[in-house]
Amino acid sequence: MYYRIGGGAAIPPSATRRNTFPLTAGVSWNSDMMCGNFDIDTTVRNQLNGVTDGFQQLMGEVIESATSAVASLPAMVIQRANPQLYDLLTNGVLQGRLDFDKSLLSCQKMAGKMTDYALGPAWTQSAQAENYQGIAASEKDAVRADQRAAEEAAEKGKRWVGGEHRGGKGQPPIKLVRDTTVAGYNILNNRSATSTSSVSSNDCQGELCQVWSKPDDAAQWLTRVVGEQTINVAPDNDQSGDTDQQSGAQSGVGLTPLIQEEQDKIQPLIIDMVNRSQPVNDDTLAQASGGELHLTRGVIEALRDDPDAAVLIQRLSGELALSRVMEQALMARRTLLAGMREPNISGEKEAQTALTQTTAQLDQELSQLKLELDMRQALADNAALTILERQTMRAKDQRPGCRRGR
């Protein structure tokens, strides 16, 4: 019997029951404000004074007195007193401006290139584009608009769920999986995408709000399974020292630890009902059921008469726990897909790519469980079961009146 049911445990023990913690990179690519930190005044001044190669390298020692002249005389006085010096200074300023524009363009190209290799810069570029759009709508001066965009960069954050801004200066970071799950939970319950309150029993229609009474419960469940991605578009949170607010990733533990935890709740309850220390009624049977896989009174009564009740209870509780967690996983998957359709999330390419990978990860977890069950059943239904069946046949042949004729 033990081998026919595939062993005592429905699933293998989990690799660990510890929760994971966020991981952040020691050195990060600060794509916000890095090109805006360039200062044209410093660039031209260094060109004229020879701190950097350029103007002085071209002019040699012809204009050694440029520093004192620039410091003591207005441009008009220089033009009248020494036209040649004025022309050289003008050319130097133009040269410095050209070098500045060239360096700025190189920086912007590098920032754009980084979006092909890293997640953070792509979000920052999107936030900067949103900010520039707002500046351009109110600022008629193109030069001033560029200056404001360079100074502000992405500090105003990224438009996120419900139109709120996240990841900027003084703003909470984007929690990709959590925020999307909360939005999906609220959408499926016909509420505002950013609501954090519990769903009342009167408003609860369906299994989702019965399994998780509030959106944060669903989000915590899913982030524990598949992990989390924290995103900032401005450097403030990353420099705060708070690992929960810094950009980074957190690994999930998978479904196996959750199944083990549910089995630890179900198995003692079944044992108590079999031993008559707990009443067998609708409430206790519902507490021990695995979602839509219900435990019935007849099963409890049958276990009371079975000599192998201990093994059967272990297997039964594992299967009920597995059914419960798999239903939760499928429900969480539907919630995540609903959240991906929230307008601000659906319009963000980087979010869609990352969330699609998250749903694929959850699918892999479910496939992994099925594979483990099939392999365990195949191994159990092999040599050990054959040995026991042959023993039963030999015992039958040795009974009086059952011996085979020669």
Notes on the structure:
A hairpin with a 5-residue loop joins β1 (158-159) and β2. The chain is built from 17 helices and five strands. The strands form two sheets. A three-stranded antiparallel sheet has the order 3-4-5. Strands 1-2 form a two-stranded antiparallel sheet. It folds into two domains: 1-18 and 174-231 and 253-406, no CATH class; 32-114, no CATH class. It is mainly alpha-helical and 406 residues long.
How much helix, percentage-wise, in residues?
55-70%
> What's the Cα radius of gyration?
34 Å
Q: Determine the structural class based on helices, strands and strand pairing.
A: mainly alpha
The biggest sheet amounts to:
3 strands, antiparallel
Shape: elongated
Strand content: under 5%
Number of helices: 17
Q: For the record, give the distance between the C-alpha atoms at the N and C termini, rounded to a whole number.
A: 32 Å
- Stretches with pLDDT under 50, minimum 5 residues: 25-34, 54-65
Strands, count: 5
**Structural domains: how many:** 2
Average pLDDT works out at 76
What's the order of the H and E elements? HHHHHHHEEEHHHEEHHHHHHH
Strand order of the largest sheet: 3-4-5
Helix/strand layout:
Layout: H1 40-49, H2 55-59, H3 66-72, H4 75-81, H5 83-114, H6 119-138, H7 142-152, E1 158-159, E2 165-166, E3 174-175, H8 176-188, H9 208-211, H10 215-226, E4 228-231, E5 248-250, H11 256-274, H12 282-288, H13 297-304, H14 309-340, H15 343-346, H16 349-380, H17 383-397
Helix pairs in contact: 1-5, 4-5, 6-7, 8-10, 8-14, 11-12, 11-14, 14-16
Characteristic key phrases:
406 residues, 2 domains, mainly alpha, 17 helices, 5 strands, two-stranded antiparallel sheet
